[in-house]
Each structure stands twice: as structure tokens, then as C-alpha cells.
Amino acid sequence: xxxxxxxxxxxxxxxxxxxxxxxxxxxxxxxxxxxxxxxxxxxxxxxxxxxxxxxxxxxxxxxxxxxxxxxxxxxxxxxxxxxxxxxxxxxxxxxxxxxxxxxxxxxxxxxxxxxxxxxxxxxxxxxxxxxxxxxxxxxxxxxxxxxxxxxxxxxxxxxxxxxxxxxxxxxxx
Length: 173
What we know:
alpha+beta; 33% helix; 32% strand; elongated
């Protein structure tokens, strides 16, 4: 059997809250620098440089995209901040999934609405028409992951876990 290796990028959509976070960050940095200038003027240049560096890091973490890497039954989800910094979010063997189904599928809403230890939204943000929800239990912790795989990735996963994956528009027995 041939090896399967697929990559997919999903850019998180910008929402008005992103701009609220950025404006709040600028205001906090201005207030902190003003207070430092008034009370610790001798250390102001050093603290200004540190606050600018910290502000830049936080500013860049607001802009993110997700990369799904599927390799022979293994699914890795990485978060890429500002197109430059990568952080591995989770790595799972697809056999660990109890269910992967479209978020819009009404047959599984009771499963999707349960309480989970961890919820990972690795999509464009929120529930959309092509959002899938994956349910997994690992070391007595439950995970609900929202992600948006493309057709090629769904097809590759379907060959690996045919009983677990429900594709949109498909009847499951």
C-alpha cells in the first residue's frame, strides 16, 4: 500500500474582536510606559524596549492559521502565528477518534453538545458549512476538535477509519 501524505492550510478569519485585542494591547502598553516614565524614569529605556518586544510578540499571536498534516493515519495540527512561528497543537492517531462528523449533522448533536475536557477550534473560527467535529478520548481526558479538512484529506481518512468518519451527505448505518 502506498504512503499517504497530505497538508492543508486553514487561515483563521479576522473578526472585530481581533482589532479590539490589538487596540487594548496598545492602550495597555501606553499606560504601562507612562507609569514607568513617571515612577521609574531611570529604567525607562530598558522597560520601553522590553514592553515593545512583548507587545510585538502578543500582536503577532493574534494573526494565526492552522496546518493539518495527515500521514498514514496520523493527524498533526499545528498553529502558525503571523506566518512565521509554528506551534504543534496536537498529534493523534486517527484510530483514537470515536467519531468524526460534519458539525451540521443533526444525528450527532447530542454527542457534540456534551461537556469535554478540552475543546480545540482549529478552523477558520466557529461552526461553518465545512466544519467537522472530531471526538477523542485520551488518558481519561475527552477532546472535541473543530477542523475543516478538504475532500482529499477526508477521502484518505475514510480509507483508514471507515467506521468512524462520517462524510457530509453520507448515510451511516
